[in-house]
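During the second half of the funding period, the structural biology subgroup turned its attention to how the target accommodates small molecules. The most pressing case was adenosine-5'-triphosphate, which had performed well in the primary screen but for which no bound structure existed. We therefore specified the complex as follows and requested a full 3D prediction, including the ligand pose.
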Amino acid sequence: MANVYGCDIGTSNMKLFSKERDEVLNEKNIIAIANKDELMAFGDDAFQMYEKAPDYITVSYPVKYGVIADIDNMEKLFENFFRKMTHGKMSGGNDFYIAVPTDITEVEQRAFYELVTNAKVKARNVYIVDKPIADGIGAGIDVTDSKGVMVVNIGADTTEISVMSLGGIVKSKSIKIGGNKLDESIVSGVRRSYNLVIGLKTAENIKKQIGSALQGEETFAKAFGRNIMSGLPVAMDVSSDVVYDSIIDHLRSIVDAVKMTLEITPPELAADIIAYGINITGGTSAIRDLQSFFEMETNLKANIIPNGSESVVNGIRSIISTPSYRKLAHAPKEKTYIG
Ligand SMILES: Nc1ncnc2c1ncn2[C@@H]1O[C@H](COP(=O)(O)OP(=O)(O)OP(=O)(O)O)[C@@H](O)[C@H]1O
Ligand SMILES: [Mg+2]
C-alpha cells in the first residue's frame, strides 16, 4: 500500500503530515546554503542562523506571500523535510495531498504540483486541495454541507478570508498582511521609541510575549539590539504599549477586509455566519485578545481555532482519512497555454 502524505507549504512554516506515522512535522520553511550550493541547514536549524550568518552563507525563505518564489531551494527543502519525516526510509510510491492557495495564478498553483512531482520523494499520485477548504475542515467544520462558513487564516505573509458552502468557495479575499508585517512594524516602532535597532527574530519574540490586539495593562519584554546613538549593543525593556501601537493598524486592516467580504456575501450565507461566527486560523491568530478585538469590531462571534498554524494540514489529515471528504481533493488543472 502506498504511503500517504499531506502538506501545507507556508511562507513561514512547512507542515508535513505522514499518515503512516500519524504525525505532523512543523518547522520553519527556511534553508541555509553555503558557497552558493552546499546545504548547511534547513528548517528550524536554519532559522537559528537567520540574521546571524556570515556572508558566505545565505539563509532564505523560498516561499513569499504564499507563492513559491525560489523553486530550486524549495525543492531541496522539501526533499530534506521529507527525508527527515520518513527517517530516510523511503518505500515505493507515495501519494501526496497538497494545499494550494486559490487566489494565485494558475501557473503559481501548478508550481506546487510540479514541486512535489519533480522532487525526489517518489510521488505516485499528487492531489490538490484548495487551502481554505482544508482550513475549514481542520477547524473542525464540515464545509461540505449547505451552511455558510467563514474562515480567516492569518498567516505569516497573507491573510486569506474565505466564505464557503457545499464544499466550494463562494467568496474570498486575500490581503498581504500577516505576522511578518507585524514583526516589521515592531522593528520600526522600537527604533522610533527607544533608538534601538532590533532584528526580525527579536521582534517576533516580543510579539509572541507581549503583543496584543487590545491595549491592556502595560507589560515589558527584554530586547537585545543596537543603540542608534552609541552604536553599541544594549538590552532594553520594550513596552507592550509600543508593540500595540506598532501592530494595531495591521489588525484593523484585517478586520476591514473581513467586513468588506461580509458585505459581498449572499444574505443566506451571511445569516449562517452570524449564527456560527467567524473562524480564525493561522499562526497569527494566537495573538492575545484577538477574539475580543474581532467581536468588538464586527459585532459577530469569533472563534479562535486552537493550534491555528496547523489548521490547514489538520484538514488535509481529515480529508485523507475520511472517505466522504476525499472528493474535496482533485487533480491539478490542465496546463493552459496563452497565445
Ligand atoms: N503566539 C503567537 N502570537 C503571535 N503570532 C504568532 C504566535 N505564534 C506564531 N505566530 C506567528 O504566526 C506566523 C506563522 O503562521 P503560519 O504557520 O500560519 O504561517 P504560514 O502558513 O507559514 O504563512 P502563510 O499562510 O502566510 O503562507 C508567524 O508570523 C509567527 O510569528
Ligand atoms: Mg498558511
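Two results from this model are relevant to the next phase. The chain is about 35% helix and 30% strand. The two ends are 43 Å apart (CA to CA).
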